[in-house]
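Researcher: Let's do a round of design. I'm pasting the structure tokens now; please hold your answer until I've finished.
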């Protein structure tokens, strides 16, 4: 069913924000999380920024080529680690992040 498929996609994208050991080593040190934009940007803007990058992680980068065609390049899972760091920098709570993933 569509609902089960959406739940699976949500679980998959949320799980990818938590790195496996190999990917974490590849990415190096965790990002600094003391910096937050929670008090500097309205909630709506912070949520929209996170959602935009989440969609980029899910869909890849679209490149337009001649004759009106386009190709999408596959992203690797390191993009999800950056997404997780972005959530922290934006000062989003775990609940807000889950709601964004569910809302797609």
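Researcher: That's everything. Go ahead.
Model: Designed sequence:
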């Amino acid at each position: 069913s569509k609902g089960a498929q959406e739940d699976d996609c949500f679980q998959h994208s949320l799980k990818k924000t938590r790195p496996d050991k190999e990917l974490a080593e590849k990415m190096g040190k965790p990002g600094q999380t003391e910096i937050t934009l929670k008090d500097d940007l309205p909630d709506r803007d912070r949520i929209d920024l996170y959602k935009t990058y989440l969609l980029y992680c899910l869909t890849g980068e679209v490149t337009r080529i001649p004759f009106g065609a386009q190709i999408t390049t596959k992203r690797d899972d390191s993009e999800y680690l950056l997404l997780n760091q972005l959530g922290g920098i934006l000062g989003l709570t775990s609940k807000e992040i889950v709601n964004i993933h569910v809302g797609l």
